Amino acid sequence: MAKVLVYIDNPGTSLKKSSLELLTLGRALGETAVALNGKLHDDVAAAFAEYGVGTVLLPSAEDLDDFLVAPKAAYLAAAAGQAGADIVLLDNSPEGKEIAARAGIRLNAGVITDVVAVDADGTAHKSVLAGSYNTACKAGTAVSVLTVKANNVVPEPAAAPAALETVTVEVPAVSAAARITAREQKVASGRPDLTDARIVVAGGRGLDGDFGPVEELADALGAAVGASRAATDAGWISHDAQVGQTGKTVSPQLYISAGISGAIQQKAGMQTAKVIVAVNKDAESPVFEIADFGIVGDLFDVLPQATAEIKKRKG
Amino acid sequence: MKIIVLVKHVPDAQFDRHLTGEGYTTDRDESILSELDEYALEAALQLAEARGGAKAGNQVIALSMGPSGAVNAIKKALQIGATEGVHLTDDALAGSDAAATSLALAAAIRHLGSDAPVDLVLTGMASTDGETSLVPAQLAERLDLPQVTFASSLEVDGGRLTARRDADTSSETVEAPLPAVVSVTDQINEPRYPNFKGIIAAKRKSITTLSLADIGVDPAQVGHAGSWTSVLSAEERPPRTAGTIITDEGDAGIKLVDFLAAQKLL
Questions:
Q1: Chain B contact for A235, CB < 8 A?
Q2: Is B101 helix (H, G, I), strand (E, B) or coil?
Q3: What angle do CA B150, B155, B159 make, to 5 degrees?
Q4: For B214-226, b where at least 16 C-beta lie within 10 A, e where not — what string?
Q5: Residues 6 or more apart from A153 whose CB is under 8 A from it?
Q6: Which of A295, A301, A311 to mutate to test the interface with B (most CBs of B within 10 A)?
Q7: CATH class of B2-226
Q8: Which of A38, A240, B7, B29 has the fewest C-beta atoms lying within 10 Å of its C-beta?
């Protein structure tokens, strides 16, 4: 049976859904252990046991968060060696990918990012070129390192909980690392994370600076708010919200595009959404070529009407 | 300063892009300088200009790995303002994954630093074709240099750099000694366009060609053969087709909600 090591970074007091997805995927592939960075809270330990994790590896050093990526990658590679891992799983965040990148070099292991499914033999599936191809990839090395996109596995506890043991991993010294000298937390929006959200409502140039109608519809649907590059470049909304080639790639169940023409740069970030709804004044907008439901109309009329109707139906 | 900027020629995303041949690599017939690399080049030019530019001995070297077409990315970089170009090219490199690419580029960077040390390696935040963002981190690992990735601001002062990184939930200030590997986002600056003077000047700038033998890399370590990952199959997704399009007659908001309800999305 394959040995799988799941890397989880600073879970705090509860595991994120994406972490539970990795544990569920790991269990389907073999025997799972976790390499944790940060404190192991009792509730998190209980969740690990519930998800069938037998071993939690913890770093000997507590200052991994003070540096950028390098010592975390050194720790993960050492943990993978200690655990005898065949497959290492991480989340697909920018940091997850970079830890994977460097740990892969240390382990002489092939790294595959943006994975949406893994077969029993370790073959990974991902879509490339902005969702225009689905590919199957495989690492030919003894160890594979895979970063897995959220929302592709349904989290499921193990049939029987595991007895959890903890093991310390000696973190190798890293001579060259950038130090994080200050960190400012951003104000939480209270909305779901854009990359993982089930529903995204996105606005573009047509909003003319006023994201109110998009935000209100998003809140009625419990959705994340996205934006086109035109809207973020204009400073109407934070750059974090940008969906597209130079921003985030999203594949929600529902993507509502409002006042976005849908040029290739935007399309690249959202065309793998399950259902696309578009509202735009211009009937010639390219977004209508890919929309499952399109409305040619003024978003300042259509969006508030839809928001009110949703609130009415949800009571 | 001696700055190396990594530039990549990628298929133009304005057109349909295809995976072809053994190993399913991208078809680069219509290729351009990766848009995200222009931010790295601009950051390098600003650092060099602040120190007196090429006249004061500052070098901005555009390095690209790839077949003959990669020269186009280097030429564009020279037109924009890079002082010289380096083209790492070898038939054995075809089909290299991120690990093999970073191995070859690390060797090329060491080679370029053999006469005078390199102060900074600058890259874009990702290529616009592979989009994995693996190479900058792997380069830092292989070169044993500090990694400063996704920088949205960059300052260099007396052998140290300070950068800002903006993530979704927090912003960080990061410091590292030089030399370092830095990738920059599209928020860091407004890249310049090549002007007429730049285009003329580029014709007099040199492009050095390097082979694997020149940089001391065994061909078996790179390309399809030396890569640690391979693409087993690739299927083109059927293009999306247009669905129902209606024109608002005063009740489109209600119809939108009806559609969502029918799709069980409420």
A1: no
A2: helix
A3: 110
A4: ebebeeebbbbeb
A5: A21, A22, A24, A25
A6: A295
A7: alpha beta
A8: B29
Residues of B in contact with A279 (CB under 8 A): 252, 256
CATH class of A2-169: alpha beta
Dihedral sign for Cα A70, A71, A72, A73, please: positive
Q: Which residue of B has its CA nearest to A272?
A: B240
Out of B142, B150, B234, name the one closest to residue A94 (CB): B150
C-beta separation of B18 from B57 below 8 A? no
Tokens representing residue B182 in the block: 């830095």
- Domain A199-314 sits in CATH at 3.40.50.1220
| Cis peptide leading into residue B179 (ω within 30°) | yes
Would you call A121 an interface residue with chain B, using a CB distance cutoff of 8 Å?
A: no
Rounded CA-CA distance A304/A308 in Å is 6
DSSP H helices in A30-125: 42-50, 70-83, 94-106
Question: Rounded to 5 degrees, what are φ and ψ at A82?
Answer: -65, -40
Long-range contacts of B151-160 (CB under 8 A, 24+ apart): B151/B182, B151/B183, B151/B184, B151/B185, B151/B188, B152/B184, B152/B185, B152/B187, B152/B188, B153/B188, B154/B43, B154/B47, B154/B182, B154/B184, B154/B188, B156/B1, B156/B47, B156/B119, B156/B120
Q: Which residue of B has its CA nearest to A276?
A: B243
Domain ranges of chain A: 2-169, 199-314
Cα of B206 to nearest chain A Cα, Å: 31
Name the residue of chain B whose CA is nearest to A188's CA.
Answer: B169
Supply B18's token pair. 């295809």
Per-residue pLDDT of chain B (266 residues; tens, 9 = 90+): 999 999 998 877 666 777 777 777 777 666 788 888 999 999 999 999 999 999 999 999 999 999 998 999 999 999 999 999 999 999 999 999 999 999 999 999 999 999 999 999 999 988 777 777 899 999 999 999 999 999 999 999 989 999 999 877 789 999 999 999 999 998 899 999 999 999 999 999 999 999 999 999 999 999 999 999 999 999 988 888 889 999 999 999 999 999 999 999 98
Query: What is the spatial order of strands in the sheet that A275-280 belongs to?
Result: A224-227, A199-203, A254-258, A275-280, A293-296, B244-247
Domains of chain B by residue range: 2-226
**Chain B contact present for A117, CB below 8 A:** no
In the chain, the amino acid numbered B17 is R
